[in-house]
Design goal:
heterodimer; A: 233 residues; mainly alpha; 0% strand; globular; B: 243 residues; 10 helices
Chain lengths: 233, 243
């Protein structure tokens, strides 16, 4: 179903959200909820097929991946998955399927792409360090051109990284479906596991951050409220 | 001192050349360049030293980097001795990192995202993501402007200014709100995303959530939530292929 205009739009958007994760401007467009919804909107613009309902698919896949991303804290030198391009690829992977069937495979695509994105982030950071080593003399002399060149070089590397990760994710979104056991019921089981894993991720992340402080009581109070609302519904 | 707006805009890319050697150092040097231009005209020798110092190792939360940038640049103009400026930079790393992480990464960001997720579960449309982006970025940009202004005004006295400011109080207060909203959002999203499944399948999702929570809290360094989920998906696929 992928067409050249759609491929180009998704590659561009994946690159923008990949860049947003760390490098520029960290405006949170790379959060899965945002990236997923906007991916859906972009697909709706490029492929005006009302049966696909891409905006809803984007919000659904984005919400589930957001549960996983809530467990990630981008502290300083921490290594973490890159959910920006991963969400773009995941939403693309879910297109054409009923939500309950497509969600699991799409989440799997998203998680694998996010891990790949995390690895490539380490590679970019090492490449940035190597570039600094090469310009050590210029930096020690207070050469502003060297600083500028290092900064722009780092941004260029991250642009290439983000585009590459998005391309890999989109490819994975195409080849994932033959790997899954055929039948919508099988796909539905994968969706169940994917959502269960997301709930585990968000809650364990919230509990870990809270530690044994007063915040833990607030997490538990919110959880009780959420379970109560679900029960009442 | 000119170049404040250019420096502010460059701070959006302060992590552009992030690396394990100098961390934010190069980005700080890049953002400092417009602010140091006047120093270059007045005292070229001091300017060269200031440029070297501006790009040395530095790490903090990116949104609060303006405080350190402004303070150190002001100290350069005030002719504060170089070793003292280096000590000031080093001293600012941890508090600015901790405050920013508390305020944004574990506070405002998850709080607003959880609120957005709750709204989505209750039927809100795509507009909710735009509202999230707007609110978050207004807070983030306002903090960035305040940071650079405060740093430039305070110079070497920036530590006291931070301690007396709204920042530590806000960082403390936003945490419980974020915790509550995450707790509230998670079951709602789980239920919303599984609205099509049968009772057995819903029970399985709850079981997996409990198992995943236990394993990732107990073995946090070896079993991350992503590894757990991918492992469970692989097991499910194997089971369904065999079945």
């Amino acid at each position: 179903m992928i067409t050249l205009p759609l491929l180009l739009v998704l590659l561009l958007w994946g690159t923008i959200v990949g860049l947003d994760v760390v490098t520029f401007p960290q405006s949170m467009v790379s959060r899965p909820l945002v990236a997923g919804t906007v991916t859906g909107m972009l697909i709706a613009l490029v492929v005006p097929d009302s049966r696909l309902n891409p905006v809803f698919t984007g919000m659904l896949v984005g919400s589930v991946l957001e549960l996983y991303a809530l467990d990630v804290l981008p502290f300083g030198a921490a290594r973490y998955p890159d959910f920006g391009p991963a969400t773009v690829s995941a939403v693309y992977a879910a297109l054409g399927w009923k939500p309950e069937a497509g969600l699991g495979g799409a989440t799997a695509v998203g998680l694998v792409t996010a891990v790949l994105g995390g690895w490539t982030m380490q590679m970019v950071r090492r490449a940035n360090a190597a570039a600094i080593q090469r310009k050590a003399a210029a930096l020690a002399a207070g050469d502003t051109r060297a600083i500028r060149s290092l900064q722009l070089g780092g941004i260029r590397r991250d642009i290439a990284r983000s585009a590459g990760v998005t391309a890999c994710g989109l490819l994975l979104g195409i080849i994932i479906w033959p790997l899954l056991p055929p039948g919508s019921e099988n796909f539905r089981w994968v969706s169940v596991v994917a959502v269960g894993g997301g709930v585990a991720a968000a809650l364990s992340g919230a509990i870990r951050v809270a530690g044994r402080t007063r915040r833990l009581a607030w997490v538990m109070a919110g959880l009780a409220g959420g379970i109560l609302i679900v029960g009442l519904q | 001192m000119n170049g404040r707006w250019r420096a502010f805009l460059r701070l959006f890319a302060v992590q552009g050349a992030w690396n394990y050697e100098r961390m934010l150092g190069v980005g700080m040097g890049y953002a400092a360049e417009p602010l140091l231009e006047d120093l270059g005209n007045a005292d070229p020798g001091r300017h060269a030293e200031a440029v070297v110092r501006s790009a040395e190792f530095f790490n903090c939360h990116p949104y609060l980097a303006g405080l350190a940038l402004g303070a150190t640049v002001r100290a350069e103009y005030d002719q504060v001795p170089g070793p003292q400026i280096i000590r000031l930079r080093t001293a600012l790393c941890s508090p600015l990192g901790a405050l920013g992480d508390q305020l944004f990464w574990t506070g405002l960001s998850p709080a607003l995202l959880s609120a957005a997720l709750i709204a989505v579960c209750f039927g809100a449309g795509a507009w909710v993501t735009l509202v999230f982006l707007l609110l978050y970025n207004v807070a983030r940009i306002a903090t960035g402007i305040w940071s650079l202004r405060t740093g430039l005004a305070a110079g070497a006295d920036v530590g006291h200014k931070i301690a007396d400011s709204w920042l530590p109080k806000a960082a403390r207060r936003v945490g419980p709100v974020a915790g509550f909203l995450i707790g509230l959002a998670v079951p709602l999203v789980g239920d919303w995303a599984l609205q099509w499944v049968t009772g057995y399948q819903f029970a399985l999702a709850v079981g997996i959530a409990l198992l995943g929570m236990f394993l990732s809290l107990r073995f946090r360094h070896s079993i991350t939530s992503v590894r757990f989920a991918l492992g469970m998906i692989a097991l499910t696929l194997a089971w369904r292929w065999i079945a």
